[in-house]
Design goal:
alpha/beta; six-stranded mixed beta sheet; 11 helices; 13 strands; binds zinc ion
Length: about 375
């Protein structure tokens, strides 16, 4: 498929009529910031050095979330892991990278198919002709499947269909707002939502040009980079990027610094996949969202998944209804996890635990 094709041409090629792409239901909303939240008014990334020539690009909170990136310098160019939710965000990071090196971006790696990790691919394709875009084979498939979840080409259409309603709601909230600070935050978020819609409408999706289906080692001009396929977790195509010398791993959303998003995930596999990841020798994690974390964060995050699955199974065996479970399990796990999972405006414990319970109930108990 040509990287220059428009979104609609790609959809047509895939046999997906845009009109047939249904609009979003609330369960499909990933990573939504409350309308009144304070968000950065620019696409900002803080580049944090985590090794010699290796940086975490930690994303500022935006109304439409951006993921973090890992930035890896090699002797002849740059490798960037994940490309955010839109080309302008990728261009903003590219400008920051240019302050470190004038070498071109040679490779972009997409950790998984979610919208906030690949929609900026086109910016790199335009800035660095010949750039190689790498993902797992399954992620490449998911990017074109109509039913894959919160990402891929069909999901761009869903976002375009959903955004006018969201924009109208922000306008209504602004009209009702009496507090000046609240109004200013809503107005910033409205402006971000409108700009995002415009960018989506003009977006030319660029898919991975190279896929991997098992773990491979890239020897990249003086640097060893391992791409690990460790099993299903946050999605069925997660890729982990491991630098053995620097002892750094970039995990996408399989390990993040806020509450996990389980809708496209595989809860029990996820636990095992993190255990597989734990066997690698690393000290620092560049997570898909939140700040750089030590390896010990894996234990905390996996512990939440294990306890969540255990609690849902037990409550279900005891005859609890889903509504009862959402309430009781949220309270039950809070002492151990609420503060550690609520460090940022997005993905906080109380915002996600109910949906997490529901997803585990559907994916583990009902299908088990
Ligand atoms: Zn994400
Ligand atoms: Zn994700």
């Amino acid at each position: 498929m040509s990287p220059l094709w428009t979104r609609r041409q790609v959809l047509t090629q895939l046999g997906i009529a845009a009109a047939a792409v249904h609009t979003l239901d609330p369960h499909e909303l990933c990573c939504a910031v409350p309308a009144h939240a304070a968000t950065a008014d620019k696409d900002l990334f803080e580049l944090k050095k985590v090794g010699d020539g290796v940086y975490a690009a930690v994303a500022a909170t935006r109304y439409k979330v951006n993921c973090n990136a890992a930035v890896i310098l090699t002797d002849d160019g740059v490798i960037v892991v994940d490309s955010h939710s839109k080309p302008s965000a990728a261009r903003a990071l590219y400008t920051e990278i240019q302050a470190i090196t004038k070498k071109p971006v040679r490779k972009v790696i997409n950790t998984h198919f979610h919208w906030d990790h690949w929609q900026g691919n086109g910016a790199y394709a335009a800035l660095s002709p010949g750039v190689e875009i790498v993902a797992t084979e399954r992620t490449r498939e998911n990017l074109t499947r109509p039913d894959a979840g919160v990402g891929g080409i069909p999901y761009i259409e869903k976002q375009i269909a959903a955004l006018p309603g969201e924009i109208q709601k922000l306008k209504d909230d602004i009209a009702k707002a009496t507090d000046a600070d609240m109004k200013a935050r809503l107005e910033s978020n409205l402006q971000q939502a409108e700009a995002f819609l415009q960018e989506l409408q003009q977006m030319k999706p660029v898919l991975p040009t190279r896929t991997v289906s098992t773990t491979v080692t890239l020897r990249e001009q003086g640097r060893e980079i391992q791409l690990h396929v460790l099993g299903r977790a946050h999605t069925d195509g997660d890729l982990f990027i491991y630098l053995p010398k620097e002892k750094v791993v970039a995990t996408g959303d399989a390990l993040i610094d806020w509450m996990p998003f389980l809708n496209d995930g595989f809860p029990e596999d996820w636990v095992q996949t993190l255990t597989n990841l734990e066997k690698l020798d690393f000290n620092q994690v560049i997570p898909g969202h939140g700040d750089v974390r030590p390896k010990a964060h894996l234990t905390f995050f996996r512990g939440y998944l294990v306890d969540l699955i255990g609690a849902v199974k037990k409550a279900s065996a005891d005859g609890a209804t889903l509504d009862e479970m959402k309430k009781t399990i949220g309270d039950q796990l809070a002492p151990k996890y609420e503060s550690g999972m609520s460090k940022y405006p997005l993905g906080q414990y109380r915002d996600r635990v109910g949906l997490n319970v529901e997803m585990v109930y559907q994916k583990v108990v009902k299908k088990g």
